[in-house]
Amino acid sequence: MVKAAEQLGVEDADAISRAEASAVTWARAHSAELVGKRLTEAGLVDNPNAQFAITDATRAGLERAITEAVESGASRGQLAQEISDLYGFSETRAELIAGTEINRAFMGGALETWRKSKVVVGKQWILASTHDRDDECDENAMAGKLKLNETFPDGSLMPPAHPNCKCSLLAVLKPDAK
Predict the structure, then answer these.
(1) In sequence order, what are the beta bridge partners of 46?
(2) Which residue, among 64, 143, 157, 72, has the nearest Cα to 110 in the 3D structure?
(3) CA 122 to CA 115: how far, in whole Å?
(4) What is the DSSP string of 33-76?
(5) What is the pLDDT of residues 114-148, one digit of tens each?
């Protein structure tokens, strides 16, 4: 959230705290919704590969753990350890889930904060410095500046576009806002 606030030139601790609260709210509503799922042309469906399936109870536990991690400021590593310990995921899968979900929560929180800001009118997909393969993120980045509620070419409103995506968004300000 600090990065999103910096993009807007916001240094007010209360404003940053409200932005962090937006990330927590977003995490409560959306965390773990992609775990055990797969995106197809028909939309989001349960992954038919049994090794990726999870129960509703596990999904609810992940939602709680992710929300608490975002709320407390836990690191990706701390969340991954908790996911591995409590839900029996391998270390690799726990790290994948933790990183993806923390990124989703903070991107969702940033988007909500920008919507409320009255100075942000758009967004731009920014490839992660570690981005090293051609995928949907490249198309999203090439789309340039979009309106806040406009979807990117892959159909998403924000990163991450896929598990382990570390891409980000850049706020597009009103021309007279500075």
Answers:
(1) 37
(2) 157
(3) 9
(4) SSTTEEEETTEEEE-SSGGG---HHHHHHHHHHHHHHHHHT--H
(5) 988 889 999 999 999 999 889 999 999 999 999 99
